[in-house]
Amino acid sequence: METKNSGLLIIFSGPSGAGKGTVLQRLFELRSDCVCSVSCTTRAPRPGEVDGVNYHFISTETFDNWVERDKFIEWDRHFSASYGTPKEFVEEQLHSGKHVFLEIDVNGGQNVMRKIPGCLSIFLMPPSWEILEDRLKGRGTETAEQLEKRFSRARFELDNRQHYAYTVINDDVDRAAQLISSIIDAEMARTQRVPSFQYN
Amino acid sequence: METKNSGLLIIFSGPSGAGKGTVLQRLFELRSDCVCSVSCTTRAPRPGEVDGVNYHFISTETFDNWVERDKFIEWDRHFSASYGTPKEFVEEQLHSGKHVFLEIDVNGGQNVMRKIPGCLSIFLMPPSWEILEDRLKGRGTETAEQLEKRFSRARFELDNRQHYAYTVINDDVDRAAQLISSIIDAEMARTQRVPSFQYN
Hints:
Chain A is of the alpha/beta class. The first copy, chain A, has seven helices and nine strands. The longest helix of chain A has 16 residues.
């Protein structure tokens, strides 16, 4: 998938509550060469959601057709709807030199790592379990069972951190966004990505 | 050589004229957690050179004794003198959390890479061959033969760039120093270097 002058495909995971959305938003303010992949979904738009911004809203028929034609980098069927990352958008952005973030869970992330060996992977980690717990408790309207489900899911995500190349601790949104920016700059300075000049 | 909270050992190479000294000086102004290893030599100090700053000036007997006792990370004998990187200084600095730069040629660099697999390697490259040539021509007092020898050595260094993990182009001293700083931050964010917290 990588070409000359190509941007990086970056798998971005971390437990719910780690602050993935906030950190990416800050990063996109810092540098205009980074974008987030927009997923396709078969579910109906929620109030306020815009087609092509939050999701590409497509029909179940189109989704199944795209799965058959291998048009997703990764996709997943949930109870009520299907979700997938469309190849075409990602490839267009990469070829234009943009770094494309896929914000996905650790299962999806590892699927993409297997399919695209050259991709980059960053895991966003909260500074401590206590802080994560507080964030997951949220509005305090959840039952103990719902909470335990959330905690258990967060533990599962954390258990899979070792599959990611980089770990960024989100103790401060600016610091975390800056570190991700440094990781991108460093990766672009990998010797195989830096062209030589004529000298013979 | 790497331990918990350890700094990075960084092999820093590039053709003469690439600006290694200037870039490192700028980097050391940017961050106080980086130091340069001071080599040992058996040659006499030149006017203005300070023992322990420019070099550790040691006798031939001491040098040979240290070679025998494996006290150098790497060493080399030239016509008139021997040069070596003392292990002890480097290890002390690494354990205290400092990142230690070894400014060495591509032969020395590859020796260290073989000996210490966990080390980092950065190649500093001039923006073009023409710029490098101009810098190598220097004061214009060299014979054609001396110049060709310099050019040939520079080509040899450039030919070995692919053995280095990162390539930094020195088109601007600030930009180059900043990029090296980003590479260090990124390397310290590699998942295996980031400790986890308790969450079970």
